[in-house]
Write a structure and sequence with these properties.
- With 160 residues, the protein is mainly β.
- Strands 1-2-3-4-5-6-7-8 form an eight-stranded antiparallel beta barrel.
- The longest helix has 14 residues.
- The chain starts with a helix and ends with a strand.
Length: 160
């Protein structure tokens, strides 16, 4: 886990140079690299390394559509399709922090129970944008007594 975190920090630093900050304004396509997750419920040993890839397309300056495929925390495949909007809430030099409101439909395979299903719902989050890199943290909600199931992280690198 330490190696994954160190690699992620190095990767973000390499692509977050203030010299690259101006390049991102016209970029509409991004590649998302998943990711890590933290689960509130520690009664189950969830896998916190959720490797995967996705493609993000901005249809306007702050509205996006994204499709991903990743290994989920239950050792199965997750394929979410999301649409969302980013709201700038703060700026830090060449970086800016955004609140994200997204809706997601996800095909989810649970490797522990050997069951697959489709779910849909809201997915709130935060994005730290520095140059071509967007560091994304999302909250996975659930509808029972514990409203937050997990917090997951991914990087989106704007490429075109």
């Amino acid at each position: 886990m330490t190696r994954v975190l160190a690699f992620t920090a190095l990767f973000v630093a390499a692509f977050s140079s203030p010299l690259l900050a101006g390049e991102g304004s016209n970029r509409r396509w991004g590649v998302s690299l998943w990711g890590l997750s933290y689960h509130i419920d520690d009664a189950v040993e969830f896998d916190e390394v959720n490797v995967g890839l996705g493609v993000r397309r901005y249809v306007s300056r702050r509205v996006f559509v994204e499709v991903d495929a990743l290994r989920n925390s239950n050792s199965g495949l997750a394929v979410p399709l999301s649409t969302g909007i980013e709201f700038r809430i703060a700026s830090f030099g060449a970086c800016s922090l955004h609140a994200v409101a997204a809706g997601t439909v996800v095909y989810y395979q649970n490797g522990r129970t050997d069951v697959s299903y489709v779910k849909a719902g809201p997915v709130p989050g935060l994005t730290l944008e520095c140059g071509r890199v967007k560091t994304n943290a999302i909250v996975v909600l659930r509808g029972d007594r514990q409203p937050v199931a997990a917090v997951a992280a991914a990087l989106t690198i704007m490429v075109r």
